[in-house]
Amino acid sequence: MKQKRPHGILLLLLGLALAVVHGADLLLWADASTGFARSGSVWWRYAVWLAALLLPYLPARRAAPQPAALSDTNLPLGICMVFAGVLLAASGLVTFPSAWVVTQNPYLFTVYPLPAAWADVVTPLLGGVWLVVYGVRACLGFGLRRGHLGHALAGVVLPLCLLWRLVWRFQFVPASLQRMPCTLRVLSAVAALLFAVVLLKVFLVPGLPCGHTLFAAGSGCFLLCTCLELVQTLFEAFRGMLILPDLLTGLGIGLLGLCGLVCAWAACGPDAAEEE
């Protein structure tokens, strides 16, 4: 008897509802210029965001341990990875002139530390390239049936990219618990980092039974990165509040959330062992 799986359509509907509510909150009940709430408590919002990150771990034990949809090829995952990678790599490239200016002018080190300037260039560039390369591999064939392992050392660049983005958002952005966009982006970076670590297992360790954590981390990444941060990014972009690197990063992380949706959806399907 096959085990009852979580329903991917429920995750999709929940994400759409979360995006609509967050969009309405930005338009009606929040101050766009400061990020403070004009109506209601920020703590209720934070409770919903934390629930979106953590609650998917409850039904994750019913997900497929080895999703059959990720055992050979997966075109939707590959396409989402390629586009997310292109956007992240572009965010690093457009930051290069700023890093070069800082390198040429040492008096700027106190404002923009040199290691931080070059980390803003190198980490998203390498992480984006990894996503593009392995996105193409997801389209052509990977995993259990092909038995082709990726390079473990190269896979470090994606978690490193997202870890740096988390540190940057937590440390270098003037944050306040009352400023909702800052807190949202920190939680979104956490969700993206958790998903990236599990995504590596799909490519680097074919056949590893990681479907439970893949569903949980993928769902959290979709809800936080796509349904919340992407909506926030588009809202601020239309108001002219973002510089180009931040816009590209927000779009890239939003598309990474779609990768999470594809993986979570696959974990809701049949297990590879059931199809043998």
TrEMBL record:
Key words of the record: Membrane, Transmembrane, Transmembrane helix
Lineage top rank: taxon: Bacteria
Instruction: Enumerate the transmembrane spans.
Output: 42-60, 75-96, 116-136, 148-167, 187-207, 214-235, 247-268
Q: What is this protein called?
A: Uncharacterized protein
In its UniProt entry, the species of origin is given as Subdoligranulum variabile DSM 15176
Biological classification of the source: Bacteria, Bacillati, Bacillota, Clostridia, Eubacteriales
